[in-house]
Specification:
heterodimer; A: mainly alpha; two-stranded antiparallel ribbon; B: two-stranded antiparallel ribbon
């Protein structure tokens, strides 16, 4: 794939650029170039034609269809926004590691893109490990900070365990079907569906895979690493964790479960598994978030809850295989969630880089100190709660609608109840920002953070108002999932 | 020109304040005069448009397409095709009377903010204009999702307007208001989406949904959907027992916001009932009409008694809102009962009376809150025990207070009487003598108004209030239009009743199906 080459060129070129600040713009340009190249790889298969055959690479291991194009565009966008918002942060706290920071992050992005574009266990696993190992490094980049080290170690130990579980699941499915390619697995399944031994082996493998992926998306009960990793990791990286690996994992989940395991006796089983995990994630995430005073920890629990909402979309997709509404809703939500969360983390990054810390105490009177940041945070919180006219409302609406259509009314109700619970903790921050006074002086701005915040603000509003067009596109991409 | 306005008039009316609010972002916050002029422009444009449309009301053609049948000034553009959401606006008598009330109240409330709000003026005005867009949007939206978007947009500025510029316990009042309404609206959303799925229309248009959903059988799920919608709206009305946020919100809100809250925001709930919950599920509404009636009657009596017990002038007026909106609730309940039992004519009377109550209350209660505000600005107290002898100190303001108190207690000849009288007349055929309980509520209401007037207005002039200034020009300008309309509709309600006629007939036809 041309993407790989692009990333490598960007990285090698990095070594030769002496003025480090230019490097950031160079990186963003590289990401844009990668995005354009992705477009071209995908246009060959005619991404606007749902019936066209997708283009295959590396002996059918990697596929370029509308689905992977959309996910890759989102992931590259995430990488670009994180790059922008971390410029000044990196310069201040990670002075000697300018290159490492961005390169490792791009490596992670590359891995994630491989995850969403592959339809072979081997390629998915390679991508996942590339993303994970880069993430462990990123979490521990603040080498002299004990919390950062703790975060890296915790993330690494848990992550390695989860990867092993996932791999074991892969191997069981391989053992049952004799194939690693998802398309062939499903053929083998259809052929041998009547064989009881094969089905039970597949079921066990499926449970292991669900466990492994639950770690990656920080779904309950595999979520305990998230708060510590978010709190200890450098703030922009915490933002990256909350949307990047999670989005990519959802891409991989959708492809593996919908394509590889999308056959009738199995779909019923894995939808139940994900439905239970979704319910647990929503409740545990939202209720625990109510008790947090550190915004980063709060956002970690919020992201656990958001994983729960997304899982509702996966469940809807699984129980209504043909409609494409569930997948379309998940894709829309991933995009909206990325826009929203990066706005929040950009503001947190800026507070952190001013040496202020990110507890509830630091948010007091933010509206008086920097109205634009405060209003963006407010709009982003509305989006996370799901209040119109933000993108989060429409994302939830599409997932909700897909769930009700798939006869998962109880799950949709759980979602509605949780949206109301989540008001509790976002409200604390909103109240601190707008209703309380602070005697601190006005907060300065920095270009990179400002661009990210502006993109997030405009994106959250615009993607909400134009959600009609976007959902049409994501549903089409969903129907092209091969 | 009317051709253009017939298509786009409502859209411009709704979004003009928002556009002006966005412009205001670029004005420096120290230029308060400019900001106020801009905000004035943002509220005057809808007023002018509203009046222009009103002059065209009789001549404007009715919509014929499925999305806009029976609506005037309609516009229909697809928005989210994937789930059948479209940008559909249009008004019938129910919506248009509310639009006219709204475009009248917003400039008046803005004027009363001038000089009263001193802190963070730019933020206040921007939120104020966003509130107007949200409110007017609710009254014109013909698509459930569009309706919901505007419904929630109302919530957000209101939270800040109470929470930042309110009284001592403003934060508590603001979050209580926010949570009540948010929980109500989430439940309502669930109910509406259920109906959308159950009817299988694939369309969120309210008229299309009404046509399909009224054929659904009465079972657990449709009953749930009906009460989900009704509870969501009842919080806003507010209907007993969902009213407890209102006294807090009213007492803490600044005067202009109280005027808007009582005058127009409560009507979002009553309008939504006649537009959504009852047309969508008339069969369930008829079955449970008595439940609604009972809550309405309890609300009337309870709120009247509660008002009598208050020591805070503003809280008294706040409870009287619960009391008056109760008349709307019982009239609506009676109408759905009557229409389902083949008494369409009586149902029409009840509906017309009930809706007239909301309109007259929309004129009277803002003026009452404004009068309380005038006292508070001068005496800095709302404690009924401390006020007294005001007729001798500030006679003109006292006269206004007496006038509006009489209007509020339902004195014949003023607008308050007409609605309540027609509503009770229309309710009687359905519930017979039980209506007398509501009549008892009216008596209690009259009693506390008289007691309050005696305490505040009559008696010896108090020394500490000597030398207070009487009414200012600004206050006269706010008082005059409302007072004129209260008297006018008290003796000549025909214009409003005519405007409501067709819509009332349609709704009673739907309820009787």
């Amino acid at each position: 794939m041309t993407l790989v080459a692009t990333m490598l060129i960007v990285m090698i070129a990095d070594f030769y650029v002496s003025e480090k600040r230019y490097l950031v713009w160079f990186s963003v340009a590289g990401l844009a170039l990668a995005m354009i190249l992705t477009w071209f790889t995908a246009t060959d298969s005619n991404i606007f034609n749902p019936n066209g055959a997708p283009k295959e690479f590396f002996g059918d291991m990697v596929v370029a269809d509308g689905f992977s194009f959309f996910m890759k565009a989102v992931l590259l966008g995430i990488a670009a926004l994180v790059t922008l918002m971390s410029t000044d942060f990196v310069e201040k706290y990670l002075k000697g590691m300018f290159m490492e920071f961005f390169e490792v992050m791009f490596a992670a992005t590359l891995g994630m893109m491989l995850m969403v574009g592959s339809r072979d266990f081997l390629a998915i696993y390679v991508g996942l490990e590339l993303a994970s190992i880069s993430s462990y490094v990123l979490a521990g980049l603040l080498r002299k900070d004990a919390k950062s080290n703790e975060a890296a170690l915790k993330y690494f130990l848990n992550g390695a365990f989860a990867s092993a579980v996932l791999l074991f699941g892969f191997s069981l499915v391989y053992g049952a079907s004799g194939e690693t390619n998802l398309v062939h697995i499903v053929d083998a399944l259809r052929a041998g569906a009547t064989h009881p031994g094969m089905l039970s082996l597949m079921t066990v493998g499926m449970i292991f895979m669900a466990g492994g992926f639950a770690f990656k998306i920080s779904a309950v009960p595999m979520h305990l690493w998230a708060p510590d990793a978010y709190e200890g990791a450098p703030t922009p990286i915490a933002g990256f964790f909350s949307v990047g690996p999670k989005g990519a994992a959802f891409g991989a989940i959708l492809r593996i479960f919908m394509i590889g395991l999308g056959v009738s006796p199995l779909t019923g089983k894995w939808t139940i598994i994900w439905a239970v995990l979704a319910t647990a994630s929503m409740f545990v995430g939202n209720i625990t978030a109510l008790m947090q005073t550190s915004i980063k920890r709060m956002m970690a629990y919020s992201s656990i809850a958001q994983a729960g909402y997304l899982l509702v979309g996966v469940v809807a997709a699984g129980s209504n295989m043909t409609s494409g509404k569930g997948i379309g809703a998940v894709l829309f939500y991933v995009m909206g969630y990325a826009l929203t969360n990066l706005g929040i983390f950009a503001v947190l990054t800026h507070l952190d880089q001013e040496g202020e810390g990110t507890t509830l105490e630091n948010m007091k009177g933010l509206f008086h100190r920097n109205p634009f940041y405060a209003v963006t945070l407010f709009v982003c919180f509305l989006s996370l709660i799901g209040i119109p006219p933000t993108v989060g409302f429409f994302g939830k609406l599409f997932i909700f609608n897909a769930a009700v259509e798939a006869n998962y009314i109880w799950l949709a109700l759980v979602m509605a109840v949780n949206s109301v619970i989540s008001v509790g903790y976002y409200y604390g921050v909103i109240k601190a920002m707008f209703l309380e006074k602070s005697d601190k002086q006005a907060l300065s701005t920095s270009t990179g953070v400002m661009i990210t915040v502006a993109v997030s603000f405009i994106g959250v509003m615009l993607a909400g108002i134009l959600s009609g067009k976007v959902i049409e596109y994501t549903e089409m991409a969903a129907r092209m999932l091969r | 020109m009317f051709d253009f306005l017939r298509d786009y008039g409502l859209t411009i009316l709704v979004f003009a304040p928002l556009v002006v609010a966005l412009l205001m972002l670029f004005v420096n916050k120290t230029q308060q005069k400019t900001l106020f002029w801009l905000a004035g422009l943002g509220t005057i444009i809808p007023l002018v448009l509203g009046l222009l449309l009103a002059s065209d009301w009789a001549a404007a053609p009715l919509g014929t397409a499925a999305h806009t049948a029976g609506m005037k000034f309609a516009l229909d553009i697809p928005w989210i095709k994937a789930i059948g959401v479209s940008y559909t606006v249009g008004v019938d008598g129910f919506g248009f009377t509310m639009i006219l009330l709204s475009v009248l109240l917003f400039p008046l409330a803005l004027l009363s903010s001038y000089g009263y709000i001193k802190d963070r003026i730019k933020d206040y005005l921007i939120l104020f204009l966003i509130l107007e867009t949200g409110t007017n949007g609710v009254f014109v939206a013909m698509d459930f999702m569009l309706f919901y978007v505007f419904w929630e947009i109302v919530l957000l500025p209101m939270y800040f307007l109470i929470g930042i510029w309110g009284g001592a316990r403003r934060e508590y009042a603001a979050i209580k208001f926010f949570l009540y309404t948010l929980i109500g609206s989430v439940i309502m959303l669930v109910g509406a989406i259920y109906l959308y799925i159950a009817t299988g229309t694939g369309d969120f248009n309210l008229l299309v949904l009404a046509k399909a959903a009224s054929g659904l059988p009465i079972n657990g799920l449709t009953t749930f959907a009906f009460f989900a919608l009704v509870v969501g709206f009842a919080v806003k009305v507010p209907m007993f027992p969902f009213h407890t946020w209102l006294p807090d919100a009213h007492v803490e809100a600044p005067t202009p916001i109280s005027m808007l809250l009582a005058g127009i925001l409560l009507k979002l709930g009553s309008y939504a009932m006649v537009r959504i919950s009852h047309p969508l599920l008339p069969q369930v509404a008829a079955k449970y009409a008595t439940v609604l009636f009972v809550f309405g009657v309890i609300g009337i009596v309870y709120a009247a008694a509660a008002a009598m017990a208050q020591k805070d002038f503003k809280k008294q007026v706040a409870y009287s809102s619960v009391n008056h909106m109760g008349f709307f609730v019982i009239a609506l309940a009676a109408a759905s009962y009557l229409a389902a039992n083949g008494q369409g004519e009586s149902a029409k009377v009840a509906l017309q009376g009930g809706y007239f109550v909301t309109i007259s209350h929309g004129l009277i209660s803002p003026l009452f809150f404004f009068a309380v505000g005038m006292f508070y600005e001068r005496t800095h107290t709302r404690d009924l025990g401390k006020l007294g002898g005001m007729f001798l100190t500030i006679p003109v303001i006292s006269f206004i207070t007496a006038f509006v108190a009489f209007a509020n207690l339902g004195l014949p000849g003023l607008a308050g009487f007409i609605g309540e009288f027609i509503a009770l007349t229309g309710t009687y055929p359905a519930y017979g003598m039980w209506v007398l309980i509501a009549g008892a509520g009216m008596v209690i209401t009259a009693a506390w108004h008289l007691i309050t007037m005696r305490n505040v207005l009559l008696g010896e002039a108090k020394k500490e209030y000597a030398g207070l200034s009487d009414i200012t020009l600004k206050e006269k300008i706010i008082f005059a239009p409302l007072a004129v309309l209260i008297v006018l509709f008290g003796v000549w309600p025909k214009p409003i009743l005519d405007m409501l006629q067709a819509s009332v007939a349609t709704l009673s036809g739907m309820l009787g199906r």
